UniProtKB/TrEMBL annotation:
Pfam families (alphabetical): DUF7870, Methyltransf_11
Domain of life: Eukaryota
Transmembrane segments: none
Organism expressing this protein natively: Forsythia ovata
Name of the featured protein: Methyltransferase
Domain Methyltransferase type: 157-206
The keyword Cytoplasm appears for this protein: no
Length: 526
């Protein structure tokens, strides 16, 4: 007896299996589009297969029913529903709930102190998933929105701190958490955008992980359009940020010359308006932690550098330098590119992952070709001087048989043409242009920049340093590495001093001491 054929059921089964797999593919494709490309959650549209009740409080988790939130601000200025009918699973996650409880406590404190209110229009900048925005809505501050480079709607729309999709004077309150401001690659633009979108008399509240006075004052310099209201230290939300400094500031109408912090000067941010400056107290504090000066003259100064450099307390090792709009290194008497720029600054100076603009000031034309194709380095082929004038630049004699002629170059002295006529010299003499270094510095950097300077100018430091004080340009420099030239003991000839310089070690020590007593963080360089 013949068995019934199974061909038709098998065919039907194959069709159903293929149809099922095709449906799975469509669902996966839809998920990838919504979540990955659109940057939204799985609750978008009618994508999810189930939803929570519209007014359930997923944060408290105790069955509390929350009031439906009103509207949020969109990039177009039109209102959009604040809470979707279908809530993202992330909102019910333990980490999200913990963050919301933390920010709810923060905002309730700010409400009790009068900085925030139910009617405030609030922006949370650089908030990735919007836990702070959620917390605001939960406590009744419904007109709140967050921005991040990738949207997480409805709480967070696409935008960045340094490029905000809002009109001028839009918000009453701006909040930045998680130490996001100091991580910004465009900090100056970040500050200016907040200045643009925050209303006059509005409040800016920032959570940062820095705790030293240098970083606090750098922050106040950066946000110069606000005045400091208060700061407080609080415990962080997790181990990633165990400590938080909360800074509350208020935007000042018609800001310009305002006192930012106790005992500080008027904030004109320009040393052009004064002939002298006073180094602020927070910079003076760093000197107490700096390495002590070497008071006894070294018997072998050529060996002192290797020993002393290990004792140097760099400013970035004592303070956070995040809140600066630019980072600048000025090498006065740079010599070759591989000299102090590469061998010391690039390899040894602690930069805290900041990118520095580099200015190399060198009077010896022998080294100029080295800088032609160096990115990030600007060569100033002149001599740093106290005014703009023509100078004579005397180069040390070098034995022609020496294998590396450049090694003896770049150690020349300068003097004005008027005073050098008729003088004899044992070295080569070039006529070069000198420029007013202090005035150049004032036109190149500001007090909101972080400026490091190394100076090795073969005795001219006794002219340049007083000029920096006279013009007030000294206040623009955060840290100086200074080589002071004196009649030191010679390596070649035991018991003999060099005749190239007339100053004594005692005069150099007086120079370093006066700099530190004036509040300048200076290190002895050899």
């Amino acid at each position: 007896m013949m068995q019934p054929s199974g061909g038709k059921p098998s065919f039907l089964r194959n069709v159903l299996v293929r149809l099922f797999l095709f449906c799975l593919f469509i669902i996966a494709l839809r998920f990838a589009y919504v979540v990955t490309l659109r940057g939204e959650s799985c609750d978008h549209g009618d994508f999810c297969f189930f939803s929570l009740p519209e007014n359930i409080d997923v944060v408290t988790g105790i069955g509390k029913w929350a009031k439906p939130s009103s509207a949020i601000i969109s990039t177009s200025g039109k209102s959009a529903p604040a809470m979707p009918k279908k809530l993202p699973e992330l909102w019910a996650a333990d980490g999200f709930q913990k963050a919301v409880r933390f920010y709810s406590s923060i905002f309730q404190d700010l409400i009790s102190e009068g900085f925030l209110g139910p009617s405030s229009k609030v922006l949370c900048v650089e908030t990735q998933i919007g836990a702070d925005v959620f917390a605001l809505k939960e406590i009744g501050v419904e007109d709140s929105i967050g921005i991040f480079k990738k949207a997480f709607k409805p709480l967070v729309i696409s935008g960045q701190g340094f490029k905000q999709p809002f009109k001028n004077s839009t918000f009453d309150f701006v909040f930045s958490c998680g130490g996001m401001i100091e991580k910004s690659a465009k900090l100056a633009d970040f500050a200016m955008e907040i200045s643009r979108t925050l209303k006059p008399e509005g409040f800016l509240v920032v959570h940062t992980g820095t705790r030293d006075n240098y970083s606090l004052n750098s922050f106040l310099d950066l946000f110069h359009f606000c005045k400091l209201v208060k700061t407080r230290d609080i415990d962080g939300i997790d181990s990633k940020m165990p400590f938080i400094r909360e800074i509350v500031m208020k935007k000042v109408s018609g800001y310009g010359n305002i006192v930012q912090i106790i005992g500080r000067r008027m904030e004109s941010h320009s040393v052009d308006s004064v002939s002298k400056c006073s180094v602020p107290g927070y910079k003076r504090e760093l000197i107490h932690n700096a390495e002590p000066l070497i008071e006894e003259e070294p018997k072998k100064p050529w060996m002192t550098l290797k020993k002393n450099i290990q004792n140097v307390k760099y400013l970035p090792s004592m303070a956070d330098i995040s809140f600066k709009q630019r980072y600048v290194y000025v090498d006065v008497g740079a010599r070759s590119y591989g000299s102090s720029i590469v061998s010391w600054f690039k390899k040894q100076y602690p930069k805290q992952n900041k990118t520095f603009e580099i200015y190399a000031i060198e009077a010896d034309k022998t080294f100029y070709d080295e800088y032609k194709y160096k990115k990030g380095v600007t060569l100033l082929p002149y001599a740093a001087w106290v005014r703009n004038e023509t100078l004579f630049f005397e180069i040390n004699n070098q034995d022609p048989s020496h294998k590396n002629l450049k090694k003896g170059r770049g150690m020349g002295r300068i003097q004005p043409v008027q005073s050098s006529g008729g003088s004899s010299s044992s070295g080569d003499v070039d006529e070069i242009k000198g420029f007013d270094f202090a005035e150049w510095l004032k036109n190149t950097v500001s007090e909101r920049d972080y400026v490091v300077m190394k100076m090795d100018v073969e005795g001219t430091e006794f002219d340049l340093i007083p000029r920096l004080f006279e013009t007030g340009a000294i206040c623009l420099i955060d840290e100086i590495f200074l080589e002071c030239h004196y009649n030191r003991w010679q390596k070649c000839c035991p018991g003999e001093r060099t005749t190239k310089y007339q100053r004594t070690y005692g005069q150099c020590l007086d120079l370093f001491t006066s700099l530190r007593e004036s509040g300048v963080l200076v290190h002895q360089w050899w």
